[in-house]
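# nightly structure sweep
# worker-07 picked up a monomer target from the shared queue
# config: single-sequence mode, recycle default, output format = C-alpha cells
# input follows
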Amino acid sequence: MSKKSSPAWDFIQLAGTVADLKRDHYRTLLTVSVLVDLLVDRGIVTREELEQRTASLDEELELLIDASLRPMG
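# output follows
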C-alpha cells in the first residue's frame, strides 16, 4: 500500500529544493567571480578577453539550442 503525499507537502519540498539551488548557485557565482579576479590580477587573462570568449560561447550555444529546436527535414 503506497501513501500519496499532500500537495502542501510537495510544495514545501519544492520550495526547499529551490532554496538549496539558489544557495548553490550563489556559491558557484562567488567562486567564479573570485577566480576571474585572480586570473585578471595575475595578468593571465584580461576582462576583455573573458567578455569576448563569453559572448562567443553564448552565441555558439544559442545557435546549437536554436538548431535543436528546429531540426532540418
